[in-house]
Amino acid sequence: MDELIKQKSLAEHIVEELEKKIVDGALQPGQRIIEEALCKTLGVSRSPVREAFQILESRGFVVREPRKGISVARSTQREAEDIYRIRASLDGLATSLAVEKQTPEFLKKLKKMHEQMIRAAEKENVAAYQQLNEKFHGLLINACENPRLIQLIQNFDKQTIRYRMAVSSGPGWMRNSTKIHAAIIVSFEAGDAEAAERIRKNSILGQIERFSEIFKNGEEK
Fold this sequence. Notes:
Blueprint: H1 2-24, E1 32-33, H2 35-42, H3 46-58, E2 62-65, E3 69-72, H4 77-101, H5 104-122, H6 126-142, H7 147-167, H8 173-190, H9 193-205, E4 215-216, E5 219-220
Antiparallel strand pairs: 1-3, 2-3, 4-5
């Protein structure tokens, strides 16, 4: 049993390492991941590596091709749009549940973070704004108090990270984003779960419009 737990934790560690490289762009779409080379680099046996591949394949990060082995998954514009639509629905639901479960202390945290985001936007500090934005929505998601929903969102969120900088950029983006966050806070103040869900869902769906800048001829650049 101890050996099984050790192997599982090792496989999870490999998953985290490869996920990070894929998200950061160190491993590019279509790039092969050689099992033997990875085993040598990490100093591990084939068993945890193969288990890690299975997990990554189930999450859509890699694909297994006959006679070619494992490679980083390519995305078409249609696939990316589908991922965003699913994430929009999941995030919207979590935001709605967060409204119903909110406390005065939670609302204060949201407002304080929003104030920091406004200052970052005024200074045009994109890096700081992105970090605060992730924390803001992390608070919303965790506040739904639904572990299964939180896990689903985290899985889909990882699949959208590679597109995030492209869709969350451009003139006036941060200013518009702060307005959307302000509207979310107003819906929390009013206890309007339906409005909060609609605002969050539409804000994610609106990002799909920029996919034409990421994809060329229907495939990921």
